[in-house]
Structures are given as C-alpha cells and as structure tokens.
Design the sequence.
C-alpha cells in the first residue's frame, strides 16, 4: 500500500489526529490483530513539552494511532500522510527513512 | 432530546447557535457527545417514502476530538419516524469514498429512501443506523 492518510485538525486547545473508518478497516486487514483508534488528541502544551525532548510528535503518533509498530508498518506501507483538514496541506513521512 | 433523556443522558441546548444543536452529557463521568439534528417531511412514494437532508460540508469535514452525531428524522404520517443516527466520521467516509450524497455549493444533499423497514441513500444500505443509540448506552441512575 502506498500511503496511509491521517487527518489533522487544529483545535483551540490542541491537535486532533484521526483515521477514517475505511482506513481503519484497511489497517485491520493488512495487520491482523491491530486495533487502530478513531483519533488521538494532543494539547498544545503537551506537544510542545514532548517535542522539546523527543523530536517531532508525528513520528510517535502514527504507530499509536494505527496500533502497528514501525518495523511492521514498513513491510506494507510506504508513506504516512498527515493532511491538515482546514488547509489541505500534506506532510509526508516516508517510512523507509524512519529510524 | 426526549430519547436521550430516557436513556439517562442529560441534554443541553446552546444559548447561541454555533452549529451543534444539542450537547448530550453523561453527568457522572462528563462524557460529552455533540448532536446535530436534521429533520425533513416525508414524500410519499409507491413503496414507502423518501426524505431529503442537507449537511454543511465544512462541518462534516472538521473532525475534532468530539465527533458530531447526525440524527436524521423524518415526519411521516403525522409522526416522527425512527431516527437514522450516523457518526460524523462514518458519514464523511461514505461521502468521500462511497459516493453517498451530492455536493451542492457548501452542502451535501442526502436523499433517503425508506421502504419495508429499510433505509437506502445513494444505493448504500443505512438500515443498521436506524435508532442506533450504540454511542449512547443506557445509564442507570
């Protein structure tokens, strides 16, 4: 599979990362035993504090949201696309370049 | 609103119209649900009836951490037919990936056909969503 799309919505108090039902179904089929979540919400202060020590939040969000470890994801998925639902801007994470 | 109260949830109506019709709350834990009610008059058909609804596209596409539950209710035969309740992410998915509804200006038009206890929209069977209060489990007080 080429890309998994994750929607990103910037709220008043933080970011909401979400998966569509279709994507959740695809993940469950590609990775039996996984339980992808509907969404993960991260407050601005949490994001800021976290990224001070650990780098970009997104690299930790997608394995948690998809409930699949990075190494296992790489076997079947090339890219994770974070799509800003307001602006349409896409940020891509190429899994083959991820540590 | 009365249905949610019967299930033991509390209901609040915003003082100012910001897009959400109702806030439904489980008082003890503070679980909040956003509800958007859409009503329509039935148009009688040969083998049932139909109804048309409009959903703002921008609202549907804005997926926040508290999803909107859309409640579609039809006035049929001087009574309210059982509501079709669809959560926002599923409705958006049907629109974007399964050709449900049609886009017109800033809205999505949804045409529901009711017949023999089934409800169909754009060839998609939505019968499972009739009176689907799964996300509003009964609370015992």
Sequence:
């Amino acid at each position: 599979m080429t890309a998994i799309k994750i929607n990103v919505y910037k709220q008043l108090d933080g970011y909401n990362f979400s998966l569509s039902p279709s994507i959740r179904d695809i993940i469950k089929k590609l990775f039996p035993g996984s339980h992808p979540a509907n969404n993960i919400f991260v407050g601005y202060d949490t994001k800021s504090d976290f990224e001070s020590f650990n780098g970009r939040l997104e690299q930790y969000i997608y394995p948690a949201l998809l409930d699949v470890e990075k190494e296992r994801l790489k076997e079947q998925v090339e890219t994770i696309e974070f799509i800003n639902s307001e602006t349409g801007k896409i940020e891509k994470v190429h899994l083959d370049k991820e540590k | 609103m009365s249905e949610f109260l019967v299930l033991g949830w509390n209901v609040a109506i915003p003082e100012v119209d910001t897009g959400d019709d109702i806030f439904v709350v489980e008082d003890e834990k503070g679980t909040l649900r956003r509800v958007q009610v859409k009503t329509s008059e039935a148009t009688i058909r040969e083998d049932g009836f139909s109804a048309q609804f409009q959903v703002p596209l921008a609202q549907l596409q804005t997926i926040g951490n508290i999803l909107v539950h859309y409640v579609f209710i039809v006035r049929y035969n001087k009574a309210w037919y059982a509501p079709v309740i669809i959560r926002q992410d599923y409705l958006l998915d049907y629109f974007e990936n399964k050709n449900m509804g049609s886009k017109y200006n800033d809205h999505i038009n949804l045409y529901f056909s009711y017949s023999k206890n089934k409800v169909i929209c754009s060839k998609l069977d939505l019968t499972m969503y009739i009176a689907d209060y799964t996300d509003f489990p009964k609370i015992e007080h």
In short: The longest strand of chain B covers residues 31-41. The helical segments of chain B are 2-6, 57-61, 88-97. The two ends of chain B are 18 Å apart (CA to CA). Chain B touches chain A at residues 61-65, 67, 89-90, 92-93, 96-97 (CB under 8 Å).
